């Protein structure tokens, strides 16, 4: 029987980056093979001192679908993946799944990922959708990861519940569209950047639930990387929004903070002379509410016309939303102000600064993502 080599060749590739994973690498490869996933495996090792690469070479003698890409220096997870994906593209693979070496990502989900991934979608093995689970993390690990994921989603508006997931399947069409040389993140922010790039390039992000199990052997390398990754996410945020929109919002905010403060002090003085029997804190709160209403109105007009250049014809609806957001802002503004002035007994000016900062953050995100959503 003549066997056509091209028919036999697998089109799916699992890419596993490794740095000092000698305790884990045989197990994960064995588990993938036991699962009988129709995929080749590429381990991208950054010259691990513990000999991870040598273990892979030994296993590859028997397993012809297992390959090692050995790199001279440790350059980070992102660089390792890019090198691995490029290697796979040259060899003609069509779908690429990224996977940790530490068995955190379940092999049972591999075929689901390969099935979901197609020419227009990226598949994500998700911890944070219904059915997804995390095993082995303590509360603080969970809160850290959940928080990082939540902030990332909020800042970058990634349309996936698990925006920081490392277990994903990409179609080669995606790599061709974006050009892998444009990937900036060398470390862990790589995962976020790929999700963001996929979304921006018009690929759908489709999630399937997984049970994520914390590593039992070897060391996690993420610790020293958190700060760097957070900086990258912030950089993506600024680049995505365009510095101009951000600056405009800040300017509108500054102008109306001036309006807010001026109205507050004027109102406070007037109220004190009109209502001499009222207690000082009540006067403060009323003055604060008045100044908020005035500054919110001028803020709406400036943000509609200038910051977000809204062409939404349903002005009443838009203004209504702005009012709702503003009401939330008022609650935040007043509560913070109350806490700072009445409870901490700090001066009015500190009350105003913290109240303005809290409300400004809320206002920016809520207005950008909801009120003026159509303009983005
Ligand atoms: N090649 C390479 N692999 C890395 C590097 N940093 C981390 N890895 C691998 O990337 C995967 C994920 O890292 P891990 O430490 O498990 O991160 P965590 O799961 O977030 O704790 C593991 O297989 C690591 O061995 C690196 O600089 N180079
Ligand atoms: Mg891991």
Structure write-up:
α6 packs parallel to α9 (226-241) and α9 packs across α10 (243-274). The protein is built from 13 helices and 9 strands. The protein has helices at 5-8, 25-34, 52-62, 77-91, 110-116, 139-156, 172-178, 189-200, 226-241, 243-274, 280-307, 315-343, 348-371, and strands spanning 12-18, 40-45, 66-70, 95-98, 121-126, 133-135, 168-171, 204-209, 211-213. The protein is elongated. Strands 3-2-1-4-7-5-8 form a 7-stranded mixed beta sheet, with helices on both faces. It has a two-stranded parallel sheet with strand order 6-9. Residues 1-7 have low confidence and may be disordered. The structure holds guanosine-5'-diphosphate and magnesium ion (MG). Guanosine-5'-diphosphate is lined by residues 17-19, 21, 44-46, 74, 76-77, 80, 100-102, 104, 215, 220-222.
